[in-house]
Amino acid sequence: MTDRFADQMKREAGELGIALNGGQLEQFFRYYELLVERNKVMNLTAITEEQDVVTKHFTDSLSLVKLMGTEALAGKTLMDVGTGAGFPGIPLKIAFPELKVTLLDSLNKRVRFLMDVCEELGLENITAVHGRAEDFGRNLQYRERFDMCVSRAVANLASLSEYCMPFVKVGGDFVPYKSGEIEEELEAGKRAVKILGGEVEQVEKFTLPGADASRSLIRIRKMKAISGKYPRKAGLPTKEPLH
Ligand SMILES: C[S@@+](CC[C@H](N)C(=O)[O-])C[C@H]1O[C@@H](n2cnc3c(N)ncnc32)[C@H](O)[C@@H]1O
Asked: Quick one: which residues bind S-adenosyl-L-methionine (predicted)?
């Protein structure tokens, strides 16, 4: 691991109130190496420059603590829908080893990559599963079983809520990671959130170190059990978003 990598990772995590030890820094660096290596043969990410990976993938993923704090994450169950190359789920798992994480993606090649990463990094209590959120959300092994569901760069709020809310226990939280101006999307998605038993509780806007682009985390609390009608069959949440 280079000093530059360790310094940047430590500094940016530190600014979030997360103290990473040497083993965790090694895990982040190995993850970065695997990402770049495997990206040569499969499409995992457009961001490959070391400093950008740290800020735009790792630190961005860890920003969940801005909303939830660090204490609230210990020992919780977390579902990451449409995790792709593992964001935000894997950085959260590295930083908070006691989290119990499930990574879900509809592209099997990516899921195999995630399994390799978990094995290489020696991560425990984390599983990567292949399938669509609309199907898993109906499976009783996953339905309303998680304290938290997170998702980054997968769909607009209305569609994404139908993907994610079914996984969250009553009293738990769904937290979408969003970029840019979100007011319109929030307005358009509010009704879907309500239909699915949720309530928008807080919006945390922030910028990443050294960047101007606006990022947002939305905390949506699950207030009541979801109707058996949802999620609708695969494809419908994006084709005909609830409104
Ligand atoms: C743009 S990528 C984002 C990946 C990662 N969350 C990130 O922020 O880098 C979107 C991912 O969502 C997955 N995806 C899209 N629709 C899905 C669905 N209905 N169920 C599960 N995964 C889905 C895709 O396969 C893809 O890997």
From this structure: 82, 87, 133-134, 152
Where are the strands (E) in the chain, listed by range?
77-81, 100-105, 126-130, 146-152, 168-179, 198-207, 214-222
pLDDT band at 74; cut points 50, 70, 90: confident
Residue type (1 letter), 24: Q
Atom of ligand 1 nearest to the CA of 132: 20
Position 72 confidence tier, pLDDT thresholds 50, 70, 90:
confident
What mean pLDDT comes out for the span 9-32? 98
Of the residues 63, 101, 105, 233, which should be mutated to test ligand 1's pocket, given the most ligand atoms within 8 Å of the CB?
105
| Residue list, ligand 1 pocket, CB within 6 Å | 81-85, 87, 104-107, 110, 132-134, 152-154, 163
Q: Find the 6 Cα to ligand 1 centroid distance in Å.
A: 29
Task: Just give the CATH number of 69-239.
Answer: 3.40.50.150
Percentage, residues of the chain above pLDDT 70: 100
Enter the ipTM.
0.99
List the one residue out of 96, 67, 61 whose CA is nearest residue 80: 61
